[in-house]
Amino acid sequence: MSEQSENPGTTRRRLRRRNSSLLILATGMLLFGLAAGALFYGLRPATLSIAVGPTGSEDVKLIQGFAQAFTHDGSAVRLKPLTTQGSAESIALFTANKVDLAVVRGDLDLPASAESVAILRKNVVVLWAPSGGKGKRRSAKIKGIDDLAGHKVGVVGSTQANVTLLRVILTESGVNPDKVAVGQFKTSQIADLARDPSLDAYMTVGPLDSKITSDAITATAAARGEPVFLPIDVSEAIAQKHPRYESEEIAGSIFSSSPARPEDKVETVGVNHLIIAQHRLDDATVGALDRQLFTLRLQVARDLPAASKIEKPDTDKDAALPAHQGAAAYIDGTERTFLEKYSDYIWGGILLISGLGSAGAWLRHYMKREEREHYITHRDNLLTLISRVRGAETTEELAAMQSDADALLREALDCYDDGAIEEGDLSVIGLTLEQFHHAVTDRRAAINGDRPGLPRMRAG
């Protein structure tokens, strides 16, 4: 039978089913694409910009080393170094929210949004005075910080933070900082520092294995005699009053073993050099960053030994510079698993999908109500046909009724295909149709039995 000779209603339903199938396929492909896109977006590495400077410094080399290691390892968090002229510019970019991270000294003026991620190194103050002229071994004029009043101190490093730290040390040691002159020298001016006769003492701030500090001690010793290291006896008090400073100790012979520099341990003050993060950064991202830093630090240390000095920040709530929650969770072992973090959303999503499914089923049933009414009509028409079969007088009438029954069956199957009726409803149609065929068979036998020359069939 050609499509043109079919029932127009049947043709429309088939076209509708075909269009619905295409729509469902297109919707499925769209949802799959959206899910794939969301998965790709969720699993792509997070890239954090980090300000570090100055150009060519150990800090820049260290951050670049970690950035390369993260990329090579395929880590979940990547670093994008932004080289600056120094801490001042790095902090300015951080304050303006133009970078996610920054490498700074802990005693600088940091914005309220700054939180610690990791300690790159511990810088300590080294104060010393010359013992006399070159080649001479005589008692030093300056033996302690108390003797610095009225003298001049040469400070290595052009940052104002070093001068501020010196003034704090002098004040807490009972020395008026206004009575101590200060001359600053760049790290490239060690030779000028050693030759300057106006200087009575020297100060550096850096790690204990700093080449700058070692070169400065060696140069001044050669020019002015062996150094006398000045202990900061009030280091504990400074740490209490100024939480961003810490009480540290310089071990004996750490700068030189022959001659011993210093001869014995020396009490001093330290300040952390660290990576800070914006408070707004995702906890999981910062936790992953910390995990990568401490997992790969020994690998990076093969080329950059300074990487081995990285330490975990203080996670105490009363710390001078609080640790980022993501870093604290990693360090304290309180990181939440994926299920712990998103279990409420997962269960909510399941309930939502279930509710949408129920609503969709109801809506589908509601939209198919007219077809279900057609099904009931078809079922009733079949029952009517059974009654009409018993009154048929000719086989032609029976054939016409069978054609009507076939059309009703086709309509019922269309309703089933459309989802308007359930399988149980189709079974009812099947049972009714079976009774119809039995009735037709009996009636045809009865009609044929009325013809002459044929045995009469008893209707049962």
UniProtKB/TrEMBL annotation:
InterPro entries, per the entry: TRAP_TAXI
Coiled-coil blocks: none
KW Transport (keyword) present: no
Superkingdom classification of source: Bacteria
UniProt keywords, alphabetically: Membrane, Transmembrane, Transmembrane helix
TM stretches of this protein: 21-43
Matching PANTHER family: SLL1037 PROTEIN (PTHR42941)
Protein name according to UniProt: ABC transporter substrate-binding protein
Species of origin: Bradyrhizobium septentrionale
Biological classification of the source: Bacteria, Pseudomonadati, Pseudomonadota, Alphaproteobacteria, Hyphomicrobiales
